[in-house]
Amino acid sequence: MPTKTTMPSRCPACAHGLVEVEAGIASWCPACRWNLDVYDPALAPWRGTRLVGRWGFRRGLEVDRATHEELLADPAASAAGTSRGEVWLMVFSVVLALIGVAALGYLAWLVVADGPPPGVRLVLAIPAVLVLLLVKPSFGRVPRYGAIAERDAPQLHRLVREVAAAAGTPVPDVICADLNINAGVARLGWRQRSVLVVGMPLWLMLPRPARVSLLAHELGHLANGDPLRVRRTLPARAFGARAVAATGGRNPWRRALHSANSLAEQGSGTVVLLGMLVQGALALVNVAGATAQLLVDSVAMPDSRRAEYRADLVARRVAGTGAFLQSAETVLLADRIWQDLWHQAPRLDSEQLESIAAEARRHLAPQLPLARQLSRRTTDLWSTHPSEDQRMRLIEALPGIGGMLHVDDSRWAAIDAELASWRRAAYHALLGTRDRF
Ligand SMILES: [Zn+2]
Ligand SMILES: [Zn+2]
């Protein structure tokens, strides 16, 4: 069946040819970006309904625009104090903590009360236990595997120390590696130790100066106090998601319908009715949890966005404009580079990963402009990071600088040698993922 298209083939604004990625995706002008910033259900993250998705997409653009303006006006400003959104989340967190304390008190009362028989007390305890599960504090755990000790990698630790000094933050307590195409920083465990996690696949794909930028971005979060900020508001941030997970995750109504059907096939009248009531109640709690999470995230996201941009500003200052842009470009192409490595893995050995990745980066480079523009369509208010395009545009709008930290090749070679076992682990992950595609 021929599809009817009302889209022009040339840009109405500048007459440049339009990009058409695939059917169903609204085309746009790569030259003047006409029609680029439109909500595209095929590309935007799915948020339950189109209405919510579209709102989140537009709101994300607004938040980015406002944050850009604010940061460009004063890029050197230190992290702002507590925002209004954060105050709300802290108040909500305190309320949740109080509810938890009340549930504990109620449980204690049930234990000592001498009125109702034990069976009744047990039933009366259930709601309080459920409430406690939803509001209990969580401190996270320092990963048990992957920690890289200073004696095993003195040069890597030295580099992290230098980046921390340049970023103006204490040195992270633990440096970890894992096998994700990612990196992160957090405060974990009872002692809230700062943990830097570097995904080795991403590390291997990054050009060397871009690795400094990656480290500086992550340590920039520490310098700006972001993990502590998140920690303070965690009960509020986690509450909705916990309710959703506890009641079975996505698609609650479909699940309720499904189990009602299977109950109806086998059970008697009362059992079916009871089962349907329980399932209906679970679905309601699920929807309420998902809505609460959406609302909480809507309040939290402007701050999270600002935190990402601020960490990018630290990366620019420490590693320089060029290194930051290189790291952003590598992130944009990371999945494709990894796919390339995957194809070649059986013919390689682990020592060649970096050079083959560099080769892949070069020959995939022509795809960058489009991938970069497309990243705007795949990001909305609730995305954990602004789009790569937005992040790059902020840094490009500032004067280009060379960065404070330069690491010579002999030091890089030493760091590479220290990470040899991790390179092998990444290589094995690559071979292991061969059957996943
Ligand atoms: Zn145009
Ligand atoms: Zn970040």
From TrEMBL:
Q: Where in this chain does the record put each Peptidase M48 domain?
A: 151-396
What CDD domains does UniProt report for this protein, alphabetically?
M48_Ste24p_like
Recorded GO molecular functions are: metal ion binding; metalloendopeptidase activity
Superkingdom of source = Bacteria
One Pfam family recorded for the sequence:
Peptidase_M48
> Per UniProt, which keywords does this protein have?
Cell membrane, Hydrolase, Membrane, Metal-binding, Metalloprotease, Protease, Transmembrane, Transmembrane helix, Zinc
Q: Which GO terms describe its biological process?
A: proteolysis
Task: Enumerate the transmembrane spans.
Answer: 87-112, 118-135
Which co-factors does it depend on?
Answer: Zn(2+)
**Entry-linked InterPro entries:** HtpX_protease, Peptidase_M48
- How is its cofactor bound, per UniProt? Binds 1 zinc ion per subunit.
Q: Which PANTHER family match?
A: PROTEASE HTPX, PROTEASE HTPX HOMOLOG
Similarity section: Belongs to the peptidase M48 family.
- Name of this protein: M48 family metalloprotease
